[in-house]
Amino acid sequence: MKKILLTLPLVFATSTIAHAADNATFSHFYGGLKLGSSSFGDLGSGVTDVTDVDDSAFSWGVFAGIQALPWLAFELGYHNLGEIDLKDVSGSYDAQALTFTAKASYEVAEKVSIFGKMGTQAYEWNANGDNVREDEKNWSPHLGAGLEYQFANNWSGTFEYTWYDDIGGPDVNYFGISAIYHWK
């Protein structure tokens, strides 16, 4: 009887290790392209007292990541947040960012996951106009959430929202879709 009681933990540990080895395929690399729209927050009274702003801009980006755990991935990406034009005067505001992101996922149904992400970015913004030439390079945080659907063996797509904090003054809100290829 003692041998059986001593053997049970060993059998349990062995089966757990074997099960973990079967699920080890979660670790893989992926890459993707994102397209969407960015809206820029308050540009400050120095701008808005003088003119209106075309608040929405086409935005795009590329990214690569590693799925480190079944629920956790890390991404490196480039995001062109777009360019907005001033309406009544000559000028524009554009921004871009190099992003570093941790992404946590939870599968809610077969092939469907929700995710949240947080990270930081090295950004650059430029203000161009009559007698105005300003730019800034700095760091700030970002947060995001979305829905991911695996529509083929190595392909998935997302719908997401990301909030970029203080990109040279205004916050930037991004809504978009992504196509992602997974190397498994």
Account of the 3D structure:
- The structure is a single chain.
- With 184 residues, the chain is mostly beta strands.
- The chain has a single domain (26-183), classed as Porin (Beta Barrel).
- 14% of the residues lie in helices and 65% in strands.
- It contains two helices and eight strands, in the order H-E-H-E-E-E-E-E-E-E.
- It has helices at 2-22, 45-48, and strands at 28-40, 56-69, 72-85, 91-109, 112-129, 132-150, 155-164, 172-183.
- An eight-stranded antiparallel β-barrel has the order 1-2-3-4-5-6-7-8.
- The longest helix is centred in the first third of the chain and has 21 residues, at 2-22.
- The protein is elongated and about 55 Å long.
- Residues 1-25 have low confidence and may be disordered.
Second rung of CATH, namely the architecture: Beta Barrel
**How large is the count of helical segments?**
2
CATH class: Mainly Beta
Could you list the spans in which at least 5 consecutive residues all have pLDDT below 50?
A: 1-25
Averaging pLDDT over every residue, what do you get?
Answer: 83
Morphology call: elongated
Annotation, overall tally of beta strands: 8
Strand order of the largest sheet: 1-2-3-4-5-6-7-8
The string of secondary-structure elements, in order, is HEHEEEEEEE
C-alpha-based Rg, rounded: 22 Å
Structural class: mainly beta
Helicity, in percent?
Answer: 10-25%
**Beta-strand residue fraction:** over 45%
Work out the count of structural domains.
1
Q: Termini distance?
A: 45 Å
In the CATH hierarchy, the third-tier topology is known as Porin
Largest sheet: 8 strands, antiparallel, barrel
